[in-house]
Fold each of these.
Amino acid sequence: MKRIVSRKVVISGLLGIALTGFLLGGTQLLWAQGVAKLNVATFGENVIESWPQFIGQLKGFFQKEGIEIKAFFIGAESQQLQAQLGGSLDITTMGSVGVINAVQKGADLIIVGAVVTRPPEVFMVASDISSFADLKGKPIAISELLSNDAYVTRKLLESKGLKVGDYTLLQIGFSNARLAALKVGAVKGTILIFIAAQQALEAGFKQLADANDLIDFPWNMINVKRDWAQKNRTVLVRYLRGLDRSIAWMTDPRNAEEGIKLLAERTKTSEPLISKTYQFMLSSKVLQATLSEKVVEKAVDFMRERGDLKGNFEVKRIVDPSYLVEARR
């Protein structure tokens, strides 16, 4: 039987707790001179799914809609959820699994957009691992048990011939924490965001699978509380319109050179590394603004398959594309 071991990386955990503590001080939706100020949680500066928020600000797409965004980097979905349910965050970017699990437990959340519909990640292993067969009996890092990356990791290993019980999953945390665990030898493999994977390659680790080897999975959702969305429909529609324009601009190859320069300056990351990641984003087509029940159904099916979703759960219960539809009118 597969053994699940829970671990936390101290630095990442303390950072998340500090951010959440700050958020729980509480800021509600504010209006100043016709501008709606929104608190939005993202997973980090160099995560592809965070970039539309930055580009939307840098290119003025949100400002044109009268939206001002304050971004909070919170790597743990559980902390994003806590802050959102407490009223300190207006919008979260949790994965579909986290939202479904929260709703199953009683949270009244809805998904109003999907930003990344395929995992923008690669699978990295220690230098002494040459094949998936070498991972048998070895520890492999995931963020949390009920997370997108956990499901995608299991499916990848299964497709490569590793059954449940052939490996040990360790709950480590976000991508940077998993990279740290790989570097110190605590795990032998993990999926990482593209930039972290490039850093792993530079440190002598190996890549066993890229984004094309991973299953299609609703990766990054735009999530709000149902009652908040109903009370602030106009604001949410304006936010989604700005986000939609940002993604359309980013995915146009003609804007790549400018986008790379803007993001390198914004994230204070080397331009060559941002360039590699940007080209990966374009070639893998992982970034898109869309939403349908069919997109989220994939996550529901996997959760049912593993027994993590009980009873009759209808996808339409948590998916409301009407806001994005209105934003595109």
Note: Residues 10-118+218-327 form a domain with the D-Maltodextrin-Binding Protein; domain 2 fold (CATH 3.40.190.10).
Amino acid sequence: MTRLPSARVAIALAGLCLSASAAPALATEKSDPWATVLPASAGQQLAVLPSLPPPAPRLFAVTPERQALLNTIRFAEGTWKNGERIGYHVMFGGSLTPSLDRHPDRVNYSARYASAAAGAYQFMPFTWNMVVRHLGVRDFQPESQDQGALFLIQRRGALHLVDRGEFTPELAARLAPEWASFPTLAGQSFYGQPVKRYAELRRFYEQNLAQLRQSTGPIYENVAIRRVSRCADDSLMCRLDSIGPRPRSTASVPVVQLEEAN
């Protein structure tokens, strides 16, 4: 993720303070989309009671190919930590957030940069807010972070490249605008920051993928990702296909079965 020079952070924070004080009445409404507003009787104010949001769906299956790329991103961003859970607590600069209930949204400083990036994939607060809006995740737990990273990969048009099981220069370049540690086709960071060499990332990816393919069982995909119709006529085969998906096999996963979203 990108980092801001220290001088820019003070300006950004000042702007946030001004905008927050300008419209305090809207904060609750925008931060809690599931709030329940009860009718007010005479002489009483409106009562706002937070209701429990619906459970977040698991949109993206985590296949060995996708998990290997997620681990490679962590390796590039410095949050791999030998695959331990502690990597999901890492904030920019190396300090740890004690809680994964939510994104910490705290600016940290290094010698040259300042950033509020946090988590295994170093999500910036505004990026994580976008993930929350699109996926409906309610916390910053490891599974939520994994789903958020896969959403960003899909958003960069790279998920189909991931599913090939090859770490190519094109794949790295597509993700370079999302993760500053990934190299562009020119071998440089998209943001002019420290970057991992392509050969180093590919070596880590291939070793990690080989291990995952040996230890991973069946994977189940949720059709909320994408539904592709095989045909459009009125035959019995097409009617059955429109009712429910059928299992399909891939080279890397024994059986991938599509399930209808709840």
Note: The domain at 64-216 is CATH 1.10.530.10 (Lysozyme).
Amino acid sequence: METDPRQLDTRVKVVTPENIAFQYHVAGPFRRLPAYLIDLAIRVGICLAALFGLSIVFSLAGLGNVGQGLWCVLFFLLAWFYGGVFETFWNGQTPGKRMMRIRVLSVEGQAINASQAVLRNILRAVDSLPGFYLLGLISASMNDRFQRLGDLACGTMVVSEEPHWLRGVAKVNEPEVLRLTARIPAWFQPNRSLARALAVYVGRRANFTPSRRIQIARYLGVPLRERLGLPQRTHLDYLLCALYNRAFVTDEVPESGAPDAAGTVTAQRVEGDPPLPAAVGSVTDQRGDS
């Protein structure tokens, strides 16, 4: 796999051998620090509770040294293997990382394996030198994926999980949108980039006022209106919703050659043409969308 060298922000693009690009937002120090503190608090809490419980139980049995020995074993395991075990079985997350919505992945965008999870956490001791994770912070500031030495050695990176704004297929049942949907030519089939833009717009349009919708929709709606040969008075907000309906929701089109109310002749949808999937994640096709 290869990565995109033109990085302007925290996004990293990973291109697979199949020419599919995945975009990730790498997590910086200020996103990872709270996760580390949460995990540290959990480990300290477990150690204190275990020390108190083991001391009472084994002291009553006259085996105080055994209790101390077990506590030392528990402290060792938590100090060196807490993060590795959780990241192995929780798909790159610890409790702190899950709460902060970050995850460890390989630099190829794949899930990390057990050896990567354990080793990157053991090497945390090196990153903490000479104190306050100074060596790790210097290393993270010198590369575009914010990788500390443990990440560089294991080929891993920490990414932010984007919130899922859209869930399933949105329903746009406004009468004006439904009427305009019937006027969209049957040959219209958006590429992946356009389909994602339509899905994001429809998913978020409820957060905008009608005037703001027009202002946002005109950047995409005006060229699409001209491409489809629709009248100048076509409502741009409704147009984007109608295109979304045509791409994701409905397969019904007017009969072939039948003019609609505006005199536009539409063609029959080709039988067997699969509709685009409704997924709108951060996956883009690099095969030459136009």
Note: The radius of gyration is 27 Å.
